[in-house]
Amino acid sequence: MDRTAFDALFAEYAPRVRAYLVRQGLGSALAEEVVQEVMLTVWRENARFDPEKGSMSTWVFTIARNRLIDSVRRRRRPEPDPEDPCWVGDRDVVAPSPETRAALRERVRELRAAFFDLPAEQRAVLEGLYFEGQSMSEHSEATGVPLGTVKTRARLALRALRGRVSGGDEE
Amino acid sequence: MKPVHHPEPDELAQYASGASPDHLSLVIACHLTYCAECRDEVKLLEELGGALLDSLPGGDGEMAPPEDLPPPAAREKRERAPLPPEFRMIPRPIHAFLDGPPRFRFLAPGVKHVPLALTVGRIQAKVVRFSPGFVVPEHSHQGLEMVLVLEGELTDGATKEVFRNGDLSRREEGSRHTQHITSEDPCVCLVVSTAEIVPSTFWGKVLKALTGV
């Protein structure tokens, strides 16, 4: 990746990453700082991004998520390591597939459309998770909806999303 | 062998979104080490994160990229000191929570453990090694207990379900059960409990006092 490509990525993602961090409760000064760290990671680690395996948006999301956890909890998030001697199965995090970069982008776009088609109360559970860092029980406490209902909503939402991107064969 | 007892879908969603507390993240990361099926699920959930990031408002160019960029990172190969052979069954996500080189400490006849540096408030995490034939006495739970099998085999006394490599046994509040070590070799598990466990037998109370299992 060259400077021009990075500047384009920065223009596309930096404001979104900042919006994400602010929704997660970071003050604007800290959010600003973490955005720079996230985007520098995107630049420095670019060789590790494999467009055959995931979209750029997904990759940036995982970097922002991990930086957020590091900065808030001061501890690295536990993650599986494909080089672990205990590893079982394919060492690629995803099974290799003929999906092209365009197909992956399409899949993320489809997920986003599917997300906006969900009933509002299911969307609220996922937004709580992804944007507010709210666990199921925290969401239940914050909204007064019983925990069992929150979990059911999450399950229904995830099933619907999976159904949409796997061509409906889950339903 | 593929795990057959998985985390709940909403737990995977909490992990992928970043909302899960450390103790749950640790259990999930260990399960993912063994389970390709749940790795695919988490991948999809991370794509949802990407989709949601896309849905946030873009800017109008008021944010400036850094002027100086450091050289890109070399693709370094991370060399790690391997654990002694006795601990080879401990997957890497746990390594960060080991306080120095691990050592199994005596807890009770037939039970040894390595405490993990993840004991926050009422949450306890440890790697426990049970001798073959050991029976974890009946106890009822307040809160949640999660047991992820790293090696060997565990059978639930009530449901007769068998748990092996990567399988997650979860006990909700109020459940009572015994667990039997049914492998010929010791059974090693990651045990995370989010509240005190109340034993319901005398021996269970003694064991509890000794071990916290």
How would you characterize the overall build of this protein?
The complex is a heterodimer of chains A (171) and B (213). Chain A is built from seven helices and no strands. Chain A has helices at residues 3-23, 28-44, 56-73, 101-117, 120-132, 136-143, 147-165. The mean pLDDT of chain A is 87. Chain B is α+β, with helices and mostly antiparallel strands and 213 residues long. In chain B, the strands form two sheets. Chain B has a six-stranded antiparallel β-sheet, sandwiched between helices. Chain B has a five-stranded antiparallel β-sheet with strand order 7-6-9-4-11, covered by helices on one side. In chain B, strand 2 and strand 3 form a beta hairpin. Chain B is globular, with a radius of gyration of 20 Å. Chains A and B meet through helix 1, helix 2, helix 3, helix 4 and helix 5 of A and helix 1, helix 2 and helix 3 of B.
Write the layout of secondary structure elements.
The complex is a heterodimer of chains A (171) and B (213).
Chain A (H helix, E strand, L loop, with lengths): L2 H21 L4 H17 L11 H18 L27 H17 L2 H13 L3 H8 L3 H19 L6
Chain B lengths: L8 H9 L4 H13 L1 H20 L36 H4 L9 E4 L2 E5 L8 E7 L4 E7 L3 E7 L2 E3 L5 E2 L4 E4 L4 E6 L5 E7 L3 E3 L2 H10 L2
Antiparallel strand pairs in B: 1-2, 2-3, 3-10, 4-9, 4-11, 5-8, 5-10, 6-7, 6-9
Distance between the termini of chain B: 27 Å
Helix content of chain A: 55-70%
Biggest beta sheet summary of chain A: none
Shape of chain B: globular
> Which word captures the global form of chain A?
globular
Total count of strands of chain B: 11
Distance between the termini of chain A: 41 Å
What radius of gyration of chain A results from the CA coordinates?
18 Å
Number of E-type strands of chain A = 0
Sheet/helix structural class of chain A: mainly alpha
Low-pLDDT stretches of chain B: none
Order of helices and strands of chain B: HHHHEEEEEEEEEEEH
Mean pLDDT of chain B: 85
